[in-house]
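Raw record, unedited: Serine protease
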Amino acid sequence: MALLVGQCPFSRSEAEMTEAGLVSEVSLPPPLGPSRLLQHSTIRIECRKADGSTSSGTGFHFDFHAPIEIGDIPVVITNRHVVDGAIQITFTLTLADENKQPTDRHMPINVSEPSWVNHPDPNVDLVAIPLAPLLRQLEQAKIFPFWATIHSDNIPSVEQLSTLTPLEDVLMIGYPNGIWDDVNNLPIFRRGVTATACNRNYRGRPEFLVDAAVFPGSSGSPVFIFNEGSYAVPGGLVMGTRLWMIGIVYAVHLHKAQGEIITITIPTQTRSVALSGIPNHLGICIQAARILEFEPVLHKLAGVK
């Protein structure tokens, strides 16, 4: 089983930069357990719009593999509707100590005129925000952040997905209603279950439902199957830990006062939800494998032949 990697993206002495402007990240042998690393896998995204309004959502760290001369490509993945129209994005970063371990210190980082890469399928509500330009600025300013990175190894293969049942316990991580531990810069964990099988396409789309509390600010929350100690598989019980990322929350079903069921992307502003729309706590998730479709686009931008 592949676990998350906790890391400070570059050493204090020198960052491994390439002509493409990408960072070759330095992995740590993490003393942190998987649940503590999961706390550092997400990032709170606050957006400022041209009209002065603000909104918030959830993003998570993801690294795309690339040839060694380029180095892995670090990005933040979130929903497109989280950042649409943003003229400034604020990330709150946890700072690392001299041993490249997380501290309780953190700082907001403003990114003006932010840029992102849309998913190659315009029907998929995902974007990748490249971090290399930000990392260059942080390194020059001698600011050393810490986060835990999700990799393709954390996304289950088709064969692994086939071992899952229609009813699985899930963990969703994010910032519902903008709520977070702002003193320690940590997200909120919420448990739920799959409401439809995550290895089947819901209504013909590569999506599935979760039965969990999904509120404004949850947009972009990663959804994991996370079992510590043991977990059930068809025909028996396996001892060990399982950590698979299976999806990203992007929308909810709402029950209107008139009785109609509608689907909306999760608002990024609490006040955007009309009182006549009653959430039924069924979140709609994009299957995690769709993240991997960013790879050829990012490789092309990085100059990978």
